[in-house]
Amino acid sequence: KVDGSGRTVAIILAAAMAAGLLLRLRHVDEPPIGYHSMKEVHYLSVTKGYLEHGDLARKRVLYSGMSEGPGYIEGLPQVQFLPFIYYPLWKMFGTSLWLSRVVVILFSLGSALMLYPVARRLTGRREVPLIAAAVMTVLPVSVFFGRNIQPDFVALFFGLLSIWLFLRWVDDTSPRYLVLSALSAAVTIAVKGTFIVMFAPLVVVYPWGELKERRIRRRVARQMAFLLPGVVLVLAWVLFTKTLQTGEGGFFPLERLF
Asked: What is the pTM of this model?
């Protein structure tokens, strides 16, 4: 049985993070070839387009004619979170594959860390969350995609952060937790829209029985307005992306969303 002290938990989590880091750093500077290399080429070439053209509003990719012209890809309206991070890093340190992968690694390990408080709040125990976090750091699929240049672990990190903040709000109904949860959820959805499914279980987790009290029901109803910043953020990005359409189409035309 795992010792319940905070120090023991910290040591176990630190050891798991160290093991996960070592696994992810192996061949961290290898070129983007092989399985799922297209994902890496996509986000690396978008960053390359930012550097060469200085236009952060449009996505230019090598496999869509970037070497012969603008090379726009106007579909996939997700926020280019990784290129937005890589752009200043490359400006300061130069084009770097290993640095680009380290960013993904940090979000990957951060997701494992965020899994612990979320699972502890849901289970009320320390053993299960520790096992879940430790397994996540060394799971082969987590190691591979936890260093591959793609935004899945960025979305997962902010999704888990949003869920944890939501659970904190359920416990003490402080508006700041609801606002931060909504903003984190907005980042998750804007970065990877399909990750919206991870918020569905919150409907089951919420203690609906408490709404029988009129005082709590009125307080919760008033605080629903604090969800608006997250909703506005997502809608603003989608509409902004739509204004950039030149009519040339893309792999996923935004017209399908309307």
From this structure: 0.84
